[in-house]
Amino acid sequence: MQIKSSKISTPLSISGKRLGAGTTALLAAMALGMVTSTAALGASCENPDSLTFAMIPTEESVAELKLYQPVTDRMAKLTGKKIEFFMPTSYASVVEGMLSKFVDVAVLGPYSYVIANSKDEDIEVFATYAKKPGYLQEEGPGYKGVLVSKKGSGFKTIEDLKGTLIGLTDPGSTSGNLVPRVVFAKVVNMDFDDYFKKSVYTGSHELSTVAVHQGKVDAAFVASHRFDNVVAKGDVKLEDFNVIWSSPAIPQDPFVYRSPLCEDIKANIRETFMGLKNDPAAKAFLSNVKSNTFVSMTSADYDVIRDLKKAKDAKKAAQ
Known about the structure:
This protein is α/β, with parallel strands linked by helices. The chain is 41% helix and 20% strand. The chain folds into 2 domains: 50-133 and 251-301, D-Maltodextrin-Binding Protein, domain 2; 145-248, D-Maltodextrin-Binding Protein, domain 2, CATH 3.40.190. Helix 5 crosses helix 12 (303-318) and helix 8 packs across helix 9 (224-232). The protein starts with 12 loop residues before the first strand and ends with a helix.
């Protein structure tokens, strides 16, 4: 709403009585204060004409975007806003989109969310999906980082992998970078980069899985549910892999929005996802993420990731 201020002439007249200059000045100040307060109230939350949505990239980002169509259509209907999509090139590009206020709603990785939230507390998590059980994936709103090698490669144990070429996902990945460098390093009691001959970033969990299968890397750290996706598509077989190590449970990918958005907009964004289980049009989307429902999440649910980040940062600072 646009608020226009009007010029106040003096002297003012109320009920036919003329007011002195002092009283006129007081009323003028009160009127100005009302305009300022109303303007401040109107500016207390953001009400954009459109909302920009983004998700961390995968090998199938374009295909996944099509599956998100019923979700974005639902969001448009509930919020009354045009929904635009930002196609990112990396985890970092989604974070930068949030930090620059270009992206309003996003799917982040747990680690990339913690990084983004540490830079701007206005990036707020509100939900994630509860996973169905899969090949390696356990049921619930968590997943694990798994270290896999190809059967027949000779790499069957953690000790076998010392001095080998290892696949990682992305610098902003939780299970594909943070967990290996912090949690796995404690398992081998050695710095990650010292234990392996070399590590390479493949760009996605799916590409890491395929790289192991094709012998381009000796082993790789991948997310349990992302590994399951590759198996489900038929690109690889579960029996082709050795699962050498798995991490403790990690909270699933956080769905976030910018907290300065007006409360009714945020409530409708939350309802977009929390109500998907009752929306027939979203069946394919939920099936794709191997989930029946979304669950509410808070910032505190990702404190385990903050602890890992703190340990990684402390270790880097000590070097």
